[in-house]
Amino acid sequence: MEKYSVMIKRAVLSLLVILISFPLFAETPNTVSLRFGKQEGGMRVVLQSDDDFVKNATTVTSPSQIEVIFPSIFVVTKPTTFPYEVRQEERRLFISLKEQNVTDIKVSRLSGPARLVFDLNLKTVPGQSSKTPGQPVQKAPQPARKDQPVPAQSASGSQNAQPQQHRPRVVVIDPGHGGYDYGILSKQASEKDTDLVLAKSLANALTRKGLTVYLTRKADQYVPIGDRIRFSNGKAAAIFISIHSSSSNHFALYTSDVEDLNIDAAVRPYNVASQQRNHIEESRTLAKSLAIAIGKEFTGTEVVMRELPVPLLNGLQAPAVLIEYPSVAQVRYDQKMQDRFVDSILKGIAANEQ
Amino acid sequence: MSSKKIWITFLVIIFLAGVSASYLLYRIFTQQERPLLALTASPAATAGPEDFFDLRMYYPVEGGLETLEKRLPRRTKQFAIAEAVIEEYFKGPGDGKGSPMPQNVSLLGVYKGLDHVLYVDLSDEARRNFQGDTLSEFLLLKGLYESLLANLQDIEDVKILIDGKEMETLGGHFYLKYPLKNLSSYEFHGDTRNPGEQ
Asked: Which residue of chain A is at minimal alpha-carbon distance from B12?
């Protein structure tokens, strides 16, 4: 009986040890420490946690919100003076930036200690010309001065006035994809990076020509389609060019087709195509000018024009074209290729002005 | 001795309750939210092998949609037919032509709303592994919509969910925020090639 009692005691003890140690194996939530500091013209927000936790986090930013998706549940600590609303939904952390005049967000991932850094650019001067999020790549020095010599455009009598009137003042360039949206991937490159490189090269070239150029994204961040549309429309763009990769070896230029949408009463609330309706002919003319210029520069490479109800194009209040360059899986976009691409787009825009 | 036995029994009960509670808590915290599947593959939904029915499928092929008839063991329930359509769409048209869907995508569920919208819940691989351009994405969505509408009754529209959630876009070109009818009603008129040479 005593032997039985000892056995029972040992069993109970073992079970107790297991019971006590069991919670140690359960998942403990990581702690994310939020800090912030004000800088000239902006604010830096830092989220600090363990290496793997930060490394595997996904960020989605827009001018109205920062969203961070962590790999597992977490507890966030923040100073009481933090000015923005912070919300947590399981693995997601939301920082609401609404009505905070954020014009641009730069995201970086740093180590030692591991942290996500968000540099917010804040609009400091009220009443400035830019009323919507985003910043110009460079402010052009006042394009189209009256005394500027203008080459004769045609045989018509009016020599100077016409070309200046058609010259686009503001160009919005939209590098496709970004953030967690990689686009087409190859071993050497991703579409989102190539889109950005080509867009920046084009922006710099257009700025040198005296135009005011805006990019819908200047860093590796996801920008929702709706934000891209609002941004461009807010800048009163004269031309909108979206840059993407094709999945084959040809160039493709897309314009919207707002006429052929079969819109009935049931789906009318979803229709956002009305904005482009007033500019569709200009968009088609621009696409043709660009296609011809690209075809001349890249002889032997097929250039196709397509009309599709692409939501991004549908919503734009400007002549708008989406350009797909030959796939990053088939073509290497080194400096020479970038220059050729940019050069052909410049020629296309110039031809469109005539 | 009798009180000892009561003690031991009590401790064992406490222990079992503790283990159960810990296990439950562990499950709750580690399992990420997963939408309950409205439907899983059900062998009971299929009839005998000699009884077949035809599916009319629309596959993206070379810049357009190709129509194919596929013969499968009969299914009577609408959800089973919806699953069969999506599975066949995943497989692709065959004859060496690949699947229009990105790699490793799985169907998580098919739901039907009171508004006669069919909700197709796909795994996140649909978004992450999509490797297409604007036209590919358009044809992928249109092909899936047309295939489902051609084979299902009482369905007026199709909406794609990713991991049980509404996502903005599949491949960065077209909205998933809205049902596909409006987009899919558009007829692609083909390419204008090399306009400079015309």
From this structure: A12
Q: How near does any CA of chain A get to the CA of B67, in Å?
A: 21
| Strands A65-69 and A58-62, bridge-based pairing | antiparallel
Q: Could you give the percent of chain B with pLDDT greater than 70? A: 87
- Assess B166–A contact: CB distance below 8 Å, yes or no: no
Nearest-CA distance from A310 to chain B in Å?
6
The whole-number pLDDT of residue A272 equals 54
- The phi and psi torsions of B151 (rounded to 5 degrees) equal -115, -10
**DSSP letters for A168-215:** -SEEEEEE--BTTB--SB-SS-BHHHHHHHHHHHHHHHHHHTT-EEEE
**B197 to chain A: closest CA residue:** A292
pLDDT of residue B24: 84
Q: Region A131-143: what's the mean pLDDT?
A: 39
> What pLDDT score was predicted for residue A215?
97
CA–CA distance, A128 with A263 (Å, rounded to integer): 39
| pTM for this prediction | 0.63
Cβ contact (<8 Å) for B135 and A252? yes
Q: Tens digit of pLDDT for each residue in B73-121?
A: 888 788 899 999 999 999 999 888 888 999 999 999 999 999 999 999 9
Strand partners, A66: A61, A95
Q: Which helix (H) or strand (E) holds A21?
A: helix A2-25
Please indicate if any CB of chain A lies within 8 Å of the CB of B169. yes
Q: Does B36 touch chain A (CB under 8 A)?
A: no
Q: How many residues does chain A have?
A: 354
Phi–psi pair at A81, nearest 5 degrees: -85, 0
Beta-carbon separation of B193 and A304 below 8 A = yes
Interface membership of B27 toward A (CB under 8 Å) = no
**What is the CB-side half-sphere exposure of residue A9 using CA atoms within 13 A?**
8
Amino acid symbol at A154: S
Return phi, psi of residue A181, to 5°: -95, 100
Greatest Cα-to-Cα distance within chain A, rounded to the nearest angstrom: 121
pLDDT at A141 over 50: no
CB contact under 8 Å between A308 and B135, yes or no, is yes
